[in-house]
Amino acid sequence: ASNKSLLILPGDGIGPEAMGEVRRIVNWMEDNRAVSFDIDEDLVGGSSIDAHGIPVTDEVVEKAMNVDAVLLGAVGGPKWDNLDFSIKPERGLLRLRKDLELFANLRPAVCFDALVDASSLKPELVSGLDIMIVRELTGGVYFGEPRGIEDLGNGIRRGVNTQVYTTPEIQRVARVAFELAKKRDNRVCSSEKANVMESGVLWREEVQKIHDTEFPEVELSHMYADAAAMELVRKPKQFDVIVTDNLFGDILSDCAAMLTGSLGMLPSASLGDVDDSGRRKALYEPVHGSAPDISGKNIANPIATILSYAMALRYSFDMGTEADLVETAVQKVLASGIRTGDIMSAGMTQVSTTEMGNAIIREL
Amino acid sequence: ASNKSLLILPGDGIGPEAMGEVRRIVNWMEDNRAVSFDIDEDLVGGSSIDAHGIPVTDEVVEKAMNVDAVLLGAVGGPKWDNLDFSIKPERGLLRLRKDLELFANLRPAVCFDALVDASSLKPELVSGLDIMIVRELTGGVYFGEPRGIEDLGNGIRRGVNTQVYTTPEIQRVARVAFELAKKRDNRVCSSEKANVMESGVLWREEVQKIHDTEFPEVELSHMYADAAAMELVRKPKQFDVIVTDNLFGDILSDCAAMLTGSLGMLPSASLGDVDDSGRRKALYEPVHGSAPDISGKNIANPIATILSYAMALRYSFDMGTEADLVETAVQKVLASGIRTGDIMSAGMTQVSTTEMGNAIIREL
Lengths: 364, 364
Ligand SMILES: CC(C)[C@H](C(=O)O)[C@@H](O)C(=O)O
Ligand SMILES: CC(C)[C@H](C(=O)O)[C@@H](O)C(=O)O
Hints:
The structure is a homodimer.
Chain A: E1 5-11, H1 15-33, E2 38-41, H2 46-52, H3 58-65, E3 69-74, H4 89-99, E4 104-110, H5 123-126, E5 130-136, E6 148-153, E7 156-166, H6 167-182, E8 187-192, H7 198-214, E9 219-224, H8 225-234, E10 241-244, H9 246-260, E11 267-274, E12 280-286, H10 303-315, H11 320-335, E13 338-339, E14 349-350, H12 353-363
Parallel strand pairs in A: 1-2, 1-3, 3-12, 5-10, 8-9, 8-10, 13-14
Antiparallel strand pairs in A: 4-5, 4-11, 6-7, 11-12
The structure holds 3-isopropylmalic acid (2 copies).
One 3-isopropylmalic acid sits between chains B (90, 93-94, 250) and A (195-196, 226).
Family (chains A, B): Belongs to the isocitrate and isopropylmalate dehydrogenases family. LeuB type 1 subfamily.
GO molecular function (chains A, B): 3-isopropylmalate dehydrogenase activity; magnesium ion binding; NAD binding
Function (chains A, B): Catalyzes the oxidation of 3-carboxy-2-hydroxy-4-methylpentanoate (3-isopropylmalate) to 3-carboxy-4-methyl-2-oxopentanoate. The product decarboxylates to 4-methyl-2 oxopentanoate.
């Protein structure tokens, strides 16, 4: 048996369909590259609610803790929209991120050459675009206490959340950003609202300190989050690595992903610290959501999930050659004009989810 | 003496230059339309820090409380960037918003026909674009307590801010959004992160209640803030009125403004409640910032500030005819091909700040 372990959590909506295509590529790797994993599959999100009443069970969290990598599809859908906040599908994903301490969320916003025209931006502004957003993922307003809704009497209620960061939390994610920048274009832009929020002042100071003491050779700039949203729209190619907190990262990374026109193509990695045994906890998932409106129709684009698997090969299993194989196959399929509906354009060939999987396996 | 009072706060950067052109139009109105104001002018932001050591004095706040409308240029610049958080230029603006209780910030994101090509988006996606963002302006994480940076010992610090909304705060801004929608395309999209934040859950519930009980005839939808950022980029014309909180509104309105390509053209209004004397406190300012890099060069675009004055004429002084005059003059100038540098394109005539003012006065 192999000692490489992978937990697959297909989740909801188009998650299972996309993950089906990943399974076929995993099988291909086993047959053709003698690459075998101990694979387990389980539930998260709405599918876990339906089976167990909660969006993730302790057992699944325990499994996730003990594998080399988790591969997740997507969570959520209208079926579970009216559930109480505390048991919604999203809380399964949030608990996994928190319990595994996956503090660094890497979200590449890359414009695929073949898809330049799918962007809503003018082609010259996005062609060749390659931004890496490093989003803090286990802190900030997502997890801060106190939180909740309290009754003030007289029919008046009050909703509270807390934005909170400690210096070690800021430092460790800043280091991830600077390390990445060194392997890329050597530039980091840190984003917050230090003009309005003290937590942003602290963020700015600590990122600057880590820069000055540990990475003086990397170019560092600071930009308020509202200005960053503007600049992403105005001139996205000015950015290399962007490092920001959980909430701003949520919004800015989605904005950047949509700019590329390649939303259905974008994977992400959520990484923890390296533990004593040299293993780094990691979860890989597409940037896109569960797209309930097109789920079950075999029309979803499986590429972002497939590329998330490729990211897992590269970062968790040190299998760069195999990751390259998958990424090259995807590029060739795109170059040959094969498209799922979301990235379809005139003159191309529209295919289903499984046909896209077939095409990629053919190129492998 | 007239009983119409206006306080002009030019502020920093390009604020004074832009406001100079407004003053000329105010004079033109006095000479040609017998429209006279009691006008006072004072300091805010960096210019107030330089003169008084604080970004706004009690005296100026007092003046602002007692006029019919405040017209503000812009605040901030690198000169004051390293000042302590509590006395930065921005705090002058934030104090004015808070003390005057200007809870509803109206930010139109309109694409001017003559400027369609200035957008980074494809022309067909923005031509005719007309979104009204209603941003809550006196609550949320901007003003919530507790806040600050505390020392935890061992060189570790902790930065905290509090996101907080009460039901009456949500209700009053929701009403403004629904009222506006009725005069427009009758659609409101409310945005928060109810999947992650309890304050967002409360926001969603209260907006829905105000809709169901007071504005059932308006179409209401809800969208997470990250999805809203994506949808703004993907297909901005799907929106009519967007209502959202202070922080999300800051980011989404800047993103929307930049989409139009008309950033240098966009005014905004910040409105309070109607008081016993029937007066609604109001502050008007351009959406753009103080642009320190181009200030003092007589090249800034004064139109957003001029249109902010037109908004004041319309909303605070019930002078729709005069507002129309100004807006039409601006449109004619654009149609004639006259442009400041920020909106310049091939075949047009590039002019300075004062020349743009001249051209608009000529059209009046
Ligand atoms: C599903 C949701 C909780 C999540 C988030 O807000 O982090 C998603 O938007 C994301 O960006 O991964
Ligand atoms: C200057 C700054 C405090 C302000 C804000 O964050 O509200 C600005 O960005 C705005 O949107 O008016």
